[in-house]
Amino acid sequence: MLINVYPASDVRGGVMSNHVWGLLSHPAQEFRQIRQENESVSHIYTHHVLLMAAIPVVCSFIGTTQLAGISAVIAFLKCCR
Questions:
Q1: Could you tell me which residues come within 8 angstroms of residue 43 by beta carbon, excluding any fewer than 6 positions away?
Q2: How confident is the model at residue 16 (pLDDT cuts 50, 70, 90)?
Q3: Which of 33, 73, 75, 79 has the fewest Cβ atoms nearer than 10 Å?
Q4: For residues 32-65, b (16+ Cβ closer than 10 Å) or e, as one string?
Q5: pLDDT tens digit string along 17-48?
Q6: Can you tell me the distance from the alpha carbon of 30 to that of 41, in angstroms, rounded to the nearest whole number?
Q7: Is 15 left (phi over 0), alpha (psi -120 to 50) or beta?
Q8: DSSP of 38-73
Q9: Predicted TM-score (pTM) of this structure
Q10: 12: which DSSP letter?
């Protein structure tokens, strides 16, 4: 008996992040489900690869804008002592 542990939006398949839990908890069943999904290469690139590639860019932006300002203040305070 299969129990659907995914949200209703994932019933049609295609949400890669929801497969992570399935691969850890019941890999054979999850691989069967992944094989049944019919996604095109362009869909995989636009919805998965490009989103994953955006993570370092966003983190770099946050780090540069937030942490660089803090390190500049610390350097200024050390310099003025």
A1: 14
A2: low
A3: 79
A4: eeeeeeeeeeeeeeeeeeeeeeeeeeeeeeeeee
A5: 677 888 889 999 988 988 888 878 888 777 77
A6: 20
A7: beta
A8: ---HHHHIIIIIHHHHHHHHHHHHHIIIIIHHHHHH
A9: 0.43
A10: T
Helix axes 16-25, 27-36, angle to 10 degrees: 150
pLDDT for position 17: 65
CB 67 within 8 A of CB 60: no
Q: Is 74 helix (H, G, I), strand (E, B) or coil?
A: helix
pLDDT tier for residue 57 given thresholds of 50, 70 and 90: very high
Q: Any idea which residue has 């310099």 for tokens? A: 79
Residue 26 DSSP class: -
